[in-house]
Please model this.
Amino acid sequence: MNAITLLTLSGEDRPGITAAVTEILASHGVNVLDIGQAVIHATLSMGLLLELPEGANRSALVAALQGFAADKGLQLRWQDVQANSYNSWVEAQGRPRYITTLLARKITADQLARVTAVFARHDIGIDGITRLSGRVPVGELPPQSKACVEFTLRGPLHDLTAFRRELLEVASELDVDLAFQEDTMYRRNRRLVAFDMDSTLIEAEVIDELARLAGVGEQVSAITERAMRGELDFQASFRERVALLRGLSETALEEVARGLRITEGAEHLIATLKALGYRTAILSGGFTYFARGLQERLGIDYVHANDLDIENGVVTGRVSGEIVDGQRKAALLRELARREGIDLQQVIAVGDGANDLPMLSIAGLGVAFRAKPLVQQSAEQSISTLGLDAILYLLGISDRYQPPRDSAG
Model:
């Protein structure tokens, strides 16, 4: 077996360093088995795993590299690698890979220490750490700041349940989000994103807003809250709430629509998804009237919601057609995946209520967004600290590859 060596270089970054180093290696017939390079605040860190062919002039190679490093003010380290160590490294490439994403308003050393301690306790190695969010200014945070670090992990997880539980406990204690996924070919190959509407794409429950104008706000809000927590059958509770809206003027719908606020990050998220060729859908237990308005504003491809029955400009207290409940959402998601010719693993579903759980459970990536406790506990992924556009980080999409925020929407 030819000699194997790990070469590391660090110091001030400048153009041409990699080209010069590899030119020296090439002149000595060296093979590169692995290479990695990172630059943090204009400081370079480079590692190369090298195979020196039999008969190579090792001392001349080392002298050339040391001379180059001294000339450029770089630190050079040369370490021989034993055959058994190299073979173990090669064999490790078949081990499962995982991604843990840390989401917060600002990243702190305490957060990193607590999260990486969980990895260490479960004997999981860190292959790489990448900052996906933009650079953060020193001092006071800008409004709606975002911070994200992605850990690439490798190794057998002997107790996945315990590992997830510890991550959730740390996330809760630190008031951050920690998303854990297996690194499969589907992770960066999603094609369809389906959203709940109320309290997901918009910061309101529309039926509660209508009920307030109808003078039955407290009654409807109490029923809505219990339904979203999963304490009531959705269809029965929905019909009960709609019946309380009987006699409401159609102009009230226009008033509520004008006052709806889009959720933080929604416009930026959908603009980015559209730029990347994703298809988007609203699958809502709310009303079509409002979903169509969002469709026009955000450029959503598909809309499925409930039709509020109106006669002579007045709400009748009934709904037309099949009610979009949890099971209907899941069926619609399957139907849209078939229509788009994609696997369910390529689908993302986002929602906040118990009636979203069926579609979250069948999607390749199900995200509970600012969700009720029952939904947070049941969904694979949960986002509570940031806006909707944090979903882009779960896809591994860095801020540098996203359209500017002022072009979103």
Q: What stands out?
A: Residues 95-182 form a domain with the Alpha-Beta Plaits fold (CATH 3.30.70.260). The first strand starts at residue 3 and ends at 12. The two ends are 59 Å apart (CA to CA). The chain has a mean pLDDT of 92.
